[in-house]
Amino acid sequence: MTREYPEYPIPAVGAIAISNGKILLVRRGSPPAKGFWSIPGGVIEVGERIEDAVRREFKEETGLECEVLNLYHITQAIIKDDEGRVRYHYIILDYFVKVVNEEEPKPGGDVLEAKWVRIKDAMKLNLTRSARELLKKLMTGISKKSLDQQIQHVR
Questions:
Q1: In the chain, what are the domain boundaries?
Q2: Burial of 135 by CB count in 10 Å (0-12 exposed, 13-18 middle, 19+ buried)?
Q3: Which stretch of DSSP H or E encloses residue 73?
Q4: Annotated active-site positions, please?
Q5: What is the CATH number assigned to the segment(s) 10-152?
Q6: Most buried of 82, 90, 103, 151 (most Cβ within 10 A)?
Q7: Which residues pair with 56 in a beta bridge?
């Protein structure tokens, strides 16, 4: 199945890495989100387990290893062309992850940049719609309880 003008929605994953009040974001280098910031992630390959896809995409896009924790958020990205036809349609499963190696991220794959950003400052970036939705949900949770408590809850 092609990613552009697919017959069915395409399953994908995202990796939410948070440390010291910062979230790890990547700037996309190819369509459909070229130039936009989002969490690391991508399409699940045929025969690939979801958790393996999270680890693979995270490593490909940031150069970092991660431990997959729990599912946090499910969203969809539907992008239509000028004629109203569905050009891209992804169903995205976003998981909390714990970074295993505390090194600086190194962009790879189709990623132009990878960096840690204060969660409050992330909303000022040119985010994908799904990343903005996710960050709003995270910030709502943060205002209700500390982020450490929130992450502990999902472990």
A1: 10-152
A2: buried
A3: strand 66-80
A4: 113
A5: 3.90.79.10
A6: 90
A7: none
